[in-house]
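Appendix B. One record, verbatim.
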Amino acid sequence: MVRVKHTGEVCQVDDITMRLLRAEEKRLRRSMQGAPGAGSGGKETVLSLDYVSADESGEMTPPWLEDPANIEDMTLDKLLLSELLESLTEKQRELFVSCVQNGMSLRAFARSKGLVIKTAEERMKQIQKKYKKIFE
């Protein structure tokens, strides 16, 4: 049985879910450096996902609150991608969107457009040259 601390709801979970919850609890306990835990002060404390450091230093801030995404890198990538798309011809852009962004194979793209595979490969090489020029 598992009790949700915030709502007080008690529910039954299967063995696999219970193992996953316990493993996650152990991982969180290890990652919370300086946080009160079992054996400190002689009392066992309950792990709470509500745990947040009150001070400004951020010393005890739980890792699950950190945003792993870097907004600057994501913005730069979007700008470079739009620059790349603007530099491509219509046929190259169609190939790029179909094969690179949507995952279509080069062979399937060539078949769908009635192209020889060599023509599609040459277009892809031209796209790669432009990509290197912009992203490097």
